[in-house]
Amino acid sequence: MALLGPARRAVRLALAPSWSVVRAVCQARAVGWHGPPSAPSLPAGTVSRAASSWHPAAPLLQPCTAILIPARNYAKSKDKKGKGKAAKAHVSEEEMEEVLNVEQMMSHFATIVESLKQDYIKNLSLRSSAGSIETLPVQLEGDEYPLNEVAQVSRKSPQVVVISAAAFPQALPGIVAALRGAGMNLNPQQEGTSVIVPIPKVTKEHRESLAKGAKTMFNKAKDQLREAQNQYIRKARNKEGKFSDDLLFNVQLRIREIAEAHMQEAESMMQAKQKELLRTS
User: Fold this and answer.
1) pLDDT tens figures, 10-57
2) Smallest Cα–Cα separation from 202: which of 96, 267, 128?
3) Please, are residues 164 and 176 in contact by the beta-carbon 8 Å criterion?
4) At what angle do helices 245-278 and 102-123 cross, to 10 degrees?
5) In degrees, to the nearest 5, what angle opens at C-alpha 15 toward C-alphas 11 and 16?
6) In angstroms, rounded to a whole number, what is the distance separating the alpha carbons of residues 203 and 192?
7) CB-based contacts of 240: which residues, under 8 Å, 6+ apart?
8) What is the pLDDT of residues 189-220, one digit of tens each?
9) Rounded to whole angstroms, how far apart are CA atoms 128 and 207?
10) Which of 13, 75, 137, 167 is least surrounded by Cβ atoms within 10 Å, i.e. has the fewest?
11) Do 169 and 176 form a contact (C-beta atoms < 8 A)?
């Protein structure tokens, strides 16, 4: 049953919080207290629907005041067209010799690059001729020999090479393994103490496969150069306290420069090899 006018107002006043509670809430929010809001003024004899429905609990349903939260906007950095150049080492070879064995380090780097060069020659050749086959390394009794020192190489026809191992028949397994692992797409067939080697036609797919192998070998050499670089940098760091920090810093920079130069040499070698392998003319 709906409550009538006076009874309804009595219930609403009973349920409304006291102004002391409202004041405490506003003070807890650090908001100034200005007393209870007054009903809007209207001309005499006029009753507002909003005024008749207003009750003291209304301030709790609205924010007491606006809270401003400062926000900081960060400017976007401009795109840099080029990064700063790396610091250049300022150290003489004599000063480096005081910290580490420069000759040993240079030999280490050069050996890695030379090994890559030899791998390219031995394993990535398009020349499946008798001349290139003769120099293939063959494992025999724990040692390595050129194929023409343990067998006789002859050309039976423009497309067939015959290898006779009658003098060293024990070298046959090593000869066959060397031919199959030469990277020349060879498929040797053993007949007694001889090995028949058909010379395949070089296809585009074979060229691309060799070029991919050149990149793989370069990456391996690059990793070896990086590992050697870090090895010598650690040696320099271990001398802290024995030499000035400035000298050790420049020595480490110089080690990186030398290693980077060898990496660039190896990369140039790789690019030249790929160009050679992919050239069809």
Assistant:
1) 545 555 555 555 565 556 555 454 555 554 554 555 444 444 444 444
2) 128
3) no
4) 10
5) 115
6) 31
7) 248
8) 999 999 999 887 778 887 888 899 899 999 99
9) 13
10) 75
11) no
Tokens 């991919």 locate to 212
Read off the tokens for 279.
């050239």
